[in-house]
Design a protein that fits this description.
The complex is a heterodimer. Chain A is mostly helical. Helices cover 79% and strands 0% of the residues of chain A. Chain B has 2 domains: 219 residues, P-loop containing nucleotide triphosphate hydrolases (Rossmann fold, 3-Layer(aba) Sandwich); 133 residues, Beta Barrel (OB fold (Dihydrolipoamide Acetyltransferase, E2P)). Classes of the chains: A mainly alpha, B alpha+beta.
Chain lengths: 231, 372
């Protein structure tokens, strides 16, 4: 069997990496914000926000993709204005694949940041306050540095989840080679074609290698951060 | 002295507990003394601004920090009050120097009379600057935390039982550092503790708290001599402090001569120059009374005085307060002795105290003989 990747395989790898990277870049600030809100915020309706954030984790990805179609479709309440005012179309595009993947990965990213925030001692923020640090100052100089390992792991976990997302992406963004056909979608397409098992196996191997590399990078980063954060 | 450094008058309901405290803090160290649950730490939190009182007023110098009537509530970060906690609370992601400079950086644009090098010098931090908090011992971490608070250029330093997490040897060490901080930087300090040792050693002003209220307030020697405060008087180590000055270091007899009011006291060598202010710590149980001038005693201190007040104690003994040459001391007596000698308020007596029973404190040299 030929182990070399075909140009189509490389295209799927490239699409996967681009879709996942874009998704994580956009989702991370939102995930940190949501985690801060859930970990430090004390307001009515916190439980509702908590449930909303976690919904993609318990819903079927196909349902998530379908809901995204309803909201971000060209006639949808958000998709319509986006297209009309900014000329941005998300359905059946690479950006749309990122949106679908990012929404699926979002709860995992929030969780990871939130665990780190919960573990960061609020007494340290009180100490910072007595030393003259205002709210934003405390967030930047104390809270986020203390939660840094959680933020890093959110990036890695989020990236991995985006690479693996299938249902939401295929429902919302379809299976377009070079645009929305990420590795799992390409494997699915190969399996649909007669005699595609060999190609599918190769792509599965590539997925495996990327996943392991991600885990190794995450572990290395975690070690460095632990040393850096003094714990 | 002009306006008091700090005035506190606040009320706060905390569940079944009611905090209702009124006191003044002076220059030097004001100790809030009382048992656990007296409301000392809650009072500190209100001064720092993290506990909102239900009503009242807090002023620091000429500034109002909190005034219910005037609707003034200064944010904690705007109060310029340094706060040293029981645990050091150093920032783990910053070096010792980073921790020290954290408050300093945020004091930019304001006068900064407390210099980095001075703090490092007084607290002996030079060798620690590049270390991480996790590599520090408990005592070292607490020194860094005191330095960090000082460098934020506060107008007031709050210390909440800063020694309670340390072992006995470290306690003595940090206590000496706190004395040096008190003497080196003219900064009023409010110090919370339930230790009488720390109180006697550090306090200039003493505020006694019990069940959310202030039950006694005044200078250290004044409040300690109040035989009507059970929190102090009922202790077996009830103690008085006599403020005086060295008149003769007298190395020949290995004793130091101290004048306190009209009284002249002989105490163990203090290694102080003539005129140095000292604080003599005299335990009530070490003071013997005589109704006629005793002769041929080994005790080196036989001072004429007068009984001012007598209070029966729960254990059956009697605590007498004496005026000795214008200074107040306490004497613990058995009822039998009271009856046999017909001791009563107003009676002239001689107070007999062995020199070795006296501790001299003030600006150095102190062995914690009682509590801990």
């Amino acid at each position: 069997m030929d182990l070399a990747l075909s140009p189509d395989d490389w295209l799927a790898v490239r699409t996967s990496l681009i879709v996942a990277a874009r998704a994580v870049i956009f989702a991370l600030p939102l995930a940190v914000g949501a985690a801060l809100l859930l970990s430090r915020g004390r307001f009515p309706g916190r439980i509702a926000i908590d449930a909303l954030v976690h919904a993609p984790m318990v819903l079927s990805p196909v349902v998530v993709g379908f809901l995204l179609l309803l909201v971000f479709g060209v006639e949808g309440p958000l998709g319509g204005p986006l297209l009309r005012w900014f000329g941005v179309r998300l359905v059946f595009t690479s950006a749309g694949a990122s949106l679908a993947a990012g929404v699926g990965a979002f709860p995992l990213m929030v969780r990871s940041v939130r665990l780190a925030l919960d573990a960061a001692d609020p007494k340290l923020e009180l100490a910072a306050r007595s030393l003259g640090a205002g709210a934003l100052d405390r967030l930047v100089s104390i809270t986020l540095p203390l939660a840094w390992p959680g933020v890093l792991s959110a990036v890695v976990v989020g990236f991995a989840a985006c690479l693996g997302e299938f249902g939401a992406v295929i429902t919302f963004a379809a299976n377009i080679p070079g645009q929305t056909q990420t590795l799992p979608l390409a494997i699915y397409a190969d399996l649909q074609a007669p005699g595609g098992e060999a190609a599918a196996l190769k792509l599965a191997g590539v997925s495996f290698v990327i996943a392991i590399a991600g885990l190794l990078i995450a572990e290395l980063l975690a070690r460095r951060t632990r040393r850096w954060s003094g714990r | 002295m002009s306006a008091p450094a700090l005035t506190v008058g606040i009320k706060k309901k905390l569940g079944a507990f009611a905090l209702d405290v009124v006191f003044e803090g002076a220059a030097g160290v004001t100790v809030l003394f009382g048992p656990s649950g007296a409301g000392k730490s809650a009072t500190l939190a209100a001064i720092a601004g993290v506990l909102a009182p239900d009503g009242g007023r807090i002023t620091l110098g000429d500034d109002v920090l909190y005034d219910r009537a005037g609707r003034i509530v200064l944010k904690p970060e705007a109060r310029r009050i340094g706060w040293v906690f029981q645990d050091a609370r150093l920032f783990p992601h910053l070096s010792v120097e980073g921790n020290l400079r954290y408050g300093l950086a945020r004091a930019r644009g304001r006068p900064a009379p407390i210099a980095f090098d001075a703090v490092v010098g007084v607290l002996g931090l030079a060798a620690l600057l590049r270390r991480r908090p996790r590599d520090l011992s408990g005592g070292e971490a607490q020194r860094v935390s005191i330095g960090r608070a000082l460098l934020s250029q506060p107008r007031l330093l709050l210390m909440d039982e800063p020694l309670s997490a340390l072992d006995a040897a470290r306690k003595g060490e940090i206590l000496a550092f706190i004395e040096q901080v008190r003497d080196a930087f003219a900064l009023p300090i409010v110090y919370v503790t339930h230790s009488l040792t720390e109180t006697v050693r550090l306090a200039d002003r003493l505020v006694v708290m019990e069940a959310g209220r202030v039950v006694g307030e005044g200078t250290l020697s004044e409040v300690l001599a109040r035989a009507d405060l059970p929190l102090l008087a009922e202790r077996t180590d009830a103690v008085a402090v006599v403020e005086g000055a060295v008149t003769d270091p007298d190395p020949v007899r290995d004793l130091t001569l101290v004048r306190a009011g009209e009284g002249v006291w002989l105490c163990p060598p203090l290694n102080k120059p003539v005129g140095a202010p000292v604080r003599l710590v005299v335990l009530a149980r070490d003071v013997i009374l005589a109704v006629t001038e005793p002769q041929g005693l080994s005790a080196r201190n036989v001072l004429p005085g007068r009984i001012e007040h007598m209070t029966p104690r729960r254990d059956g003994s009697v605590l007498a307060r004496l005026d000795v040459g214008g200074r107040l001391i306490l004497s613990a007596l058995t009822p039998d002795a009271v009856q046999a000698l017909a001791l009563r308020p107003g009676l002239p007596v001689w107070a007999v105290v062995k020199s070795v029973a006296i501790e001299g404190t003030g600006r150095s040299g102190f062995s914690p003989l009682f509590d801990g």
